[in-house]
Design a protein that fits this description.
Elements lengths: L3 E2 L17 E7 L4 H4 L10 E4 L4 H7 L3 E2 L8 E2 L8 H7 L4 H10 L5 H10 L9 H5 L3 H14 L7 H9 L11 H20 L2 H19 L6 E7 L2 H10 L8 H6 L13 E8 L4 H14 L2 E6 L9 H5 L9 H7 L7 E5 L2 E4 L28 E3 L2 H10 L3 E2 L5 E4 L5 E4 L8 H9 L2 E3 L1 E2 L6 E2 L3 E2 L6
Parallel strand pairs: 2-6, 2-7, 7-8, 8-9, 9-15
Antiparallel strand pairs: 1-18, 3-6, 4-5, 10-11, 12-17, 13-14, 16-17
Helix pairs in contact: 4-5, 4-9, 7-8, 13-15
Amino acid sequence: MQSNITHPQTNATALAPKGSGAWKIAIIGNFSGLACSDGATSLLKRKHHRVTKDNFDEVFERLNVQLKLPICDNTISFDDIDDLNPDHLYQNVAAFSQYRELIQKLQSKAHFQDAVDQLQAKGLIEQTQTAAQVRGIPPENLLDSVLSSATQQSNAEFSVEALIRQTIAPHIEAQLDPRAEQYVGAVEAAATDLLRSIMHASEFKQLEASWRCLDFINRKLDTDRACHLHLIDANLEAIKKDALEHAANVEASELYRNVIADKAIAGNAPYDAILLDINATPNDAQLLQFFARFAQAANVRLLTGASLDTAGYTSANALLDNQAATAQSDAWLQARSTAGAQNLFACTPPFMVRLPYGAKTKPIESLRFEELPSTSNKASFYLWGNSAYLTLMSLVNKNNSIDSLPFHVTYDDDGDELLIPTTGAYLPASAIEKLEHAGLSVVQSVKNSDSVLIQRWVSFQNHP
């Protein structure tokens, strides 16, 4: 395979599956959350789950998807992909039970005073100053303080009472005659803070993004005649450990034996492509070197995601502002020089998986929830997915354009309309060239459109 592949349509031979039929594709990632990360099952024993339009929900249920987060006192279980939303969290996470009870009482004439008494008993209603001021804690730092404290006491009993007491307080102004709407708004604001913190915990974001990306390509691709998708549920830390232990002998690794060697049986077609659902950073040079060797040994195309800082840029703005790139490390350049790097494709930037929840975008039923905070730094509160999934679609469909992707129409600080494209920023040709020179395969947003382009397939190997 060439190191710099042009449009898929013009290079059909290089991008054809090994056999004469459908593409056989393995997708490796942590799709079960807690159940996979507990280390109970080795990589050697991870099952290959065929995913189709008809059995998607069944596969989800079979994996027993769960998460245990430091800021929650109970394990969160998900029965299907529709459970990966704020309504499910609000109704099923124990920490929200007292929020729900308070709101119900505040909205009931018969129980309003009881709710007020509860707030007073918790010290949330002060005659002259807010509870936050009494405690000497700046209101904007309260939630961070509580969540940090909860994280540190992993072996102690989680105190929902303390969370309720400390997070609602900054949202209530001290008044002698408070109205119900004010208190309901305060409780909802506190619940929003906690809900936002859960949804944007790294573990939850990874889980939701992986499932929604898989759901997208499963709906868009012909999974009967064009490709066969096989999901392999594996924890990233287990993969990294396996890679480091077998860096010198990839074929002895548990992952290689599971995905490649043990499937080399007469009548069992090998994989044509593998998607590794990670977002590689500059610290992952050894990991990508391992997977370059993996791709070489297996004679397979291997796709993964990569952050912009692997090309030396801290953000898209740094790239667009023509800031000087940080030089790639010796370890990174060595990885790019590894035999097999021509079969490895590191895809960037990530893409918007869904619109943020909110009254004007995706309202929820349980409460007035705005996923994006009012602060100026909102980019990290979007749900970004691995663009290797889009590159995979381009590979199977032999089409460099993918549409029906989300983009967000919002407003800047001056009230002017602002469009956030699918990949977060529009990249000019000069910026794309810089990323490609760094060994990245670029997914490009189309101006004022729900589409992206993958103009060139650029491998991870060093380029002149």
